[in-house]
Amino acid sequence: QVHLAQSGGGLVQTGGSLRLSCAASGLTGYVVTMGWFRQAPGKEREFVADTNRFIGGTNYADSVKGRFTISVDNTKNTVYLQMSSLRPEDTAVYFCATKKSYALGRADYEYWGQGTQVTVSS
Predict the structure, then answer these.
(1) Closest CA relative to residue 63, chosen from 90, 44, 42, 39
(2) What count of other Cβ atoms lies within 10 Å of the Cβ of residue 39?
(3) Is the dihedral of CA 41, 11, 111, 49 positive or negative?
(4) Tens of pLDDT along 13-45?
(5) Residue predicted with more confidence, 99 or 28
(6) What is the DSSP letter of 88?
């Protein structure tokens, strides 16, 4: 099993920044690709970004390109999501996730964090 512990999030004004963290533990050999998703009230969960720990590469949803940056610290088995130029429409519960697959993209995620609230006030 893989356990993901999230931290960060909170309330920020429009245009502000926040950083989310997600630390993996347990069978970290299964943690190949790490990503972030979000779910706003009344909406389906949507893909935000992901990255492969070993071969690099990043993938972003169009809605966050140029504003969000995903990065990983392999020494800590931790993935980060730096969010800048935040907008009210970024308000959601953010989830980190991992998968054994090397392929980037929203499919095949197996393990999920507990979620953390991000609220952007206008």
Answers:
(1) 90
(2) 14
(3) positive
(4) 999 999 999 999 998 888 899 999 999 999 999
(5) 99
(6) G
